[in-house]
Amino acid sequence: MRSSIWRLARSLAIAYLVVLLLAMIFEERFIFIPRGYDGGANWNPDGLHFEDVFFTAADGTQLHGWYCPVEEPRAVILFAHGNAGNLSNRAPVVRKLQHYLDATVMLFDYRGYGRSEGRPHEAGVLQDARAARAWLARRAGVEEQEIVLVGRSLGGAVMVDLAAGDGAHALVLESTFTSIPEVAALRFPFLPVRTLIRNRFDSLAKIERYGGPLFQSHGDADQLIPYEFGRTLHEAAVGPKEFFTLPFGGHNDAQPDEYYLALNEFLGGLTTRSSD
Fold it and tell me: How far apart are CA 48 and CA 68, in angstroms?
């Protein structure tokens, strides 16, 4: 009996270690779900005026984006998408930002996504955002700190890092988490992910270093990134801030028109206050 129990315990321990090792080896594949360029219709969306742009990250990785200008923009926006797909799925977001905010918008793909080279990892993705902002500032003729940073889900963590390090005209976060370890611990409570995970995207630790305006939204029915994560991140922010709750909103639900109206009012208030 003791021998059987010992063999069972040993087998379970080995299986646990194998699962842990595989989780560590394939960590990036759990976090990043890129879709490459396929030349489909999404890459030429109807009614969207854009320029294909290519630029280079600090480590030499070539990246791709869409520059979507409007005449006499009221805002210049850099948009960072979530962890799946690529920028070709985000044309409807650009249309909304242009319609409601009268904004020039730049979308970009992280390394390994769409037409961008390389493979994604935390340090590289954060470099990609810095390179995109620098390119956008030059092209739009504004200072980097005059750009509104908008990030959705993983993109929110990317924009928090950018704003915390260098500031922004405003930071806009959609369905963003506190940190990757916290999300992973929710999904894999039986693994010591808080200690072992390498790609941390720790927005909760960074956001207090950003003292500028923050507009944040989260669906209260989000089953992927819990609503409470968004509230916790918001409470840690130290600057002027506003939180927009999407009633019954799931993680991948589109932002309603009411959201864009509220965001427009928030950004308009920044312009009014700065001119007083």
Answer: 8
First to last CA, the chain: 81
Q: Is 88 a catalytic residue?
A: no
Tell me which of 153, 179, 203, 217 is the catalytic residue: 153
Pick the catalytic residue: 109, 128, 161, 222? Answer: 222
Query: How crowded is residue 46: how many other Cβ atoms within 10 Å of its Cβ?
Result: 6
Confidence category of residue 29, pLDDT binned at 50, 70, 90: confident
At residue 193, the 3 state secondary structure works out as helix
More confident residue, 10 or 109: 109
CA torsion through residues 202, 208, 214, 218, sign: positive
Q: Is 251 a catalytic residue?
A: yes
Q: Cα–Cα distance between 2 and 96 in angstroms, integer?
A: 66
Q: Which CA distances in Å does 182 have to 43, 135, 171?
A: 34, 33, 22
Rounded to 10 degrees, what is the CA torsion of 80, 174, 34, 166? 30
Helix/strand number for the chain, H first, E second: 10, 10
Each residue's pLDDT tens digit, 220-255:
999 999 999 999 999 999 999 999 999 999 999 999
Q: Does the annotation mark 253 as catalytic?
A: no
pLDDT digits (tens, 9 = 90+) for 101-154: 999 999 999 999 999 999 999 999 999 999 999 999 999 999 999 999 999 999
